[in-house]
Amino acid sequence: MFNYGHNRGKTSLMLFISLAFVLLLIIYSFSPIFSGVAIFAHAAPSAPAPEEFASSEVDLIDIIAAIADGGEVVIGLQSDIQLTASLSIPDDKHVILVSAGNNDEMYQLIGADGEDTIVIVTGGLLSLYDVIITHNDDESGRGITINSGGKLVMYDGEISNNKIILAPGGGVHNNGGIFEMSGGVIVSNSAYDGGGVCNSEGAEFIMNSGVIGGSEIDKNIAYAGAGGGVCNSVGCIFEMISGEISYNDGNSAGGVYNGGTFDMRGGEISNNNVTGAGSGGGGVFNRGVFNMFSGEISYNFGSLRGGGVYNANDLGSAAFIMHGGKIFGNTAEYMGGGVYLYSTGRDSCTFTMIGGEIFNNMALHSVDYTGFGGGVANDYGEFIMDGGEIYGNTAISGGGVFNLGTGVHGAFTMNGGIIGGVTSDKANSADLSGGEFLIIMMARL
Question: What predicted TM-score, i.e. pTM, was given to this entire model?
Answer without folding.
Answer: 0.89
